[in-house]
Structures are given as C-alpha cells and as structure tokens.
Design goal:
Elements: H1 12-24, H2 29-43, H3 59-79, H4 92-95
Length: 108
C-alpha cells in the first residue's frame, strides 16, 4: 500500500531532462523513484558506481605526460652539472649508508 511521500528539490532543467528520458521508458518520476529505492534496499546501498564528473587522464595521456617530463629532465641534466645531486629527490649525503628494506610479504 502506497501511503508515504517523498519531496525533493532539484534544478528544473535536470527534472525536465530526466522526465523526458523516463517517459521514453514508459515511466513517470514516481515509478522511477520507487524502482531506485527498491534497488537501494536490494543492494543495501547505492545500486550503481558514483564517479566524479572529472575524468581521469587516459593511459596515453599519462604516457605523454611522462615522456614530456623525461625530456625536460634530460634537457636539465644536459645543461647542469648533476654530479652534485641536483636531479635527485634526496641529496647524495643523505643516501650514503642507506639500506633497502624489502617487505617480507610476497609481491606476487
């Protein structure tokens, strides 16, 4: 028995766009909200992944960015005396005597 109501405030353009999509599926807003809430209960959470509107850079873009920074580093290394450790994140004097500690857990 339907005896509860939900009210929500939203952007009017979003509402109009959503109602057009729902109508093309043969649904109204009430049907869509009921379907959504049934899926929330069935999944015990939001029934879909929520992603940021910001897109992560593609692998090709990441590779291009890496190549660009490598070219920059090579250009700097060619124009500067790097024997004093200018290109290292840690100064050579801090690296002397450093030991690598590998994890005991399997990395495979």
């Amino acid at each position: 028995m339907k005896n509860a109501a939900i009210r929500a405030r939203m952007d009017s353009k979003l509402k109009a766009s959503a109602l057009r999509v729902l109508a093309s599926c043969g649904l109204d807003a009430s049907d869509a909200i009921q379907l959504f809430l049934q899926q929330v209960v069935a999944h015990q959470g939001i029934p879909f992944d929520i992603r940021s509107a910001e897109r992560a850079p593609s692998m090709a873009k990441l590779r291009a960015m890496k190549r660009q920074s490598q070219k920059r580093d090579h250009r700097i290394a060619g124009s500067v005396d790097v024997s004093k450790g200018q290109m290292l994140l840690l100064r050579p004097e801090r690296l002397r005597g450093a030991k690598v500690c590998w994890p005991k857990a399997s990395l495979v």
